[in-house]
Amino acid sequence: MLKVILEALSGLILLIIGIFLFVLFILSMADNTSNILFIIASMLFIIGGCLLLFISGRSDETVTKKAKETIVKNSGIGLEGVLARNNEMTKEFTEASDQKDKLKLLEAAGDLIIKPKF
Questions:
Q1: How many Å separate Cα 74 from the centre of its chain?
Q2: Angle between helices 36-57 and 2-30 (to 10 degrees)
Q3: Torsion angle, alpha carbons of 25, 26, 31, 35, to 10
Q4: Which end of the chain is more exposed for a tag (fewer CB within 10 A), N or C?
């Protein structure tokens, strides 16, 4: 996480320095003392800053997802543990299947109310 924050801050600092150098180049053009090094350095700093911001934005270190734990802890050694896990999965499957059937019935009832068949 600290690495991502440091990359983002350094990217912002490089971007600000690049914009400052670009402004100096524009101001020096008005005085006819323009130096090509200002524009080259400003482009390098702007590209480097944008690259660091892009890398820090794409980092997966800031994303923390916790998946729902569906695996039942081993409730026993041997056949009893396997049977307990199997029964738990069967119970979850039947609940999901019942909910799916109820939703299909509600959808069919909604279709009949909205679109009556003549």
A1: 33
A2: 160
A3: 20
A4: C
